[in-house]
Amino acid sequence: MISTLAAAALALSTIVIPPVADPPPTGQITINVVTVNGSGCRLGSAAVAVSPDNKAFTVTYSDYLAQVGPQSKPTDFRKNCQLNLKVNVPGGFTYGIAQADYRGFADLQKGAKGTVKASYYFQGMSDTDQRSKTYNGALSDNWQVTHKTDVASIVYHPCGEKRNFNINTELRVDKGTSDPKKTSFMAMDSTDGSIETIYHFAWKKCPKL
Description:
The protein is mostly beta strands. Helix content is 5%, strand content 47%. The longest helix is centred in the N-terminal third of the chain and has 10 residues.
């Protein structure tokens, strides 16, 4: 018969301790917008900023809105944006994305619905699972879609390689059975910069050559 002490030791030996990300580097991190494509982010309408503690970066859109209703163009029901970013990090470090928070505001009439889709990936590597969420009217409120990755599943930028970071998003509004004389819209922008899409870094030290 296994003693209580031995059983406890055996139980502890089978516990799997998940990997822990390294603390962020203290050096400067910069992000350059290489290309901007899509009807939801005309040139100059997307701004990127790194947080002071190097734990995240934000993307703020100033003209990203899909809508249906009076005064809307036939193509306004769907807007999309593709950003290609060059992330410059201190030597000896690499990064992945632990969590992405996509935010905006929706004003949907009863019978209408709005959908947000989002994904991200490193250039030349597999796309992340696309996250999608649909909101039904009547609704007039902020919305948020969170894309969280387990620490063990985080994909890191390959050390020693140059691969840009790509962000793909889409907004779509369907008028459904709503009053055609009323406007419904879904936005991923903010005139005062208070609504931001946030990408939370996961850091790792590169092996020394």
